[in-house]
């Protein structure tokens, strides 16, 4: 039977032997892989594979952010970085220090701990302490003189303490001044005004 002629310009269907088709497909995949390799390498250069693990944490202080308290600092005091237990930290003169803390425990236990730093182990009667209104609550003023031994064990002779402890909004706010006795006496008025200026933001 005579085959019908195809129209001019029409394309014949392409049928490759099975082996040729497989070889062609493999070659195309190889070219694709070679073309993607530089892109993958470039992408990997911009990504870090190093694993970072956090092993320590610390509580945020008012030096990281201003916190919930606002206070007016006397002009002759200077602000220094806060620490783990000092949420607002100040210095005056050469070694005088004043700091605000949000403490745990109650007024009596903290006040007696402060007195022990002056080798005073007597039981404290809160009703014997001077009062000062701070943050809308009655706070307690504590004073001590003598040899002061701080957390690091360093002793300071002829030192004095002037402190405030006040409970407010479920927190115990403490303000503590430690310096030479004559310096604490000179700064007493500044300390009182400093404490009275404390406000919740």
In summary, what is this structure?
With about 200 residues, the protein is an alpha+beta fold. The chain has helices at about 20-45, 105-115, 180-185, 190-195, and strands at about 70, 80, 90, 95-105, 130-135, 135-150, 155-170, 170-180, 200.
**What number of structural domains do the residues give?**
2
CATH third-tier fold name of the largest domain: Protein Transport Mog1p, Chain A
Low-confidence stretches: 1-25, 39-45, 57-65
Portion of residues in beta strands equals: 25-35%
Main sheet overview: 7 strands, antiparallel
Tell me the series of helices and strands, N- to C-terminal.
Answer: HEEEEHEEEEHHE
Count of alpha and pi helical runs: 4
Structural class: alpha+beta
| CATH homology superfamily of the largest domain | Mog1/PsbP, alpha/beta/alpha sandwich
The neighbouring-strand order within the major sheet is 2-3-4-8-7-6-5
| Terminus-to-terminus distance | 103 Å
Shape: globular
Tally of strands: 9
The CATH architecture term of the largest domain is 3-Layer(aba) Sandwich
Summarize model confidence as the mean pLDDT: 79
Overall CATH class of the largest domain: Alpha Beta
Give the helix level as a range of percent: 25-40%
Q: Mind telling me the C-alpha Rg?
A: 38 Å
């Amino acid at each position: 039977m005579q085959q019908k002629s195809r129209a001019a310009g029409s394309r014949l269907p392409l049928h490759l032997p099975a082996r040729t088709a497989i070889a062609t497909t493999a070659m195309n995949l190889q070219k694709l892989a070679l073309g993607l390799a530089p892109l993958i390498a470039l992408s990997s250069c911009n990504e870090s594979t190093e694993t970072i693990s956090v092993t320590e944490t610390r509580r945020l202080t008012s030096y990281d952010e201003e916190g919930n308290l606002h206070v007016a600092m006397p002009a002759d005091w200077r602000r220094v970085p806060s620490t783990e237990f000092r949420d607002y930290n100040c210095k005056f003169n050469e070694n005088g220090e004043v700091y605000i803390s949000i403490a745990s425990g109650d007024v009596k236990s903290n006040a007696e701990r402060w007195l022990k730093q002056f080798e005073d182990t007597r039981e404290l009667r809160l009703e014997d302490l001077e009062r000062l209104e701070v943050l809308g609550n009655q706070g307690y003023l504590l004073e001590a003189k003598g040899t002061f031994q701080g957390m690091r064990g360093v002793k300071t002779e002829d030192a004095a303490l002037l402190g405030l402890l006040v409970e407010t909004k479920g927190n115990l706010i403490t303000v503590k001044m430690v310096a030479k006795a004559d310096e604490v006496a000179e700064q007493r008025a500044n300390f009182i005004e400093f404490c009275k200026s404390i406000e919740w933001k």
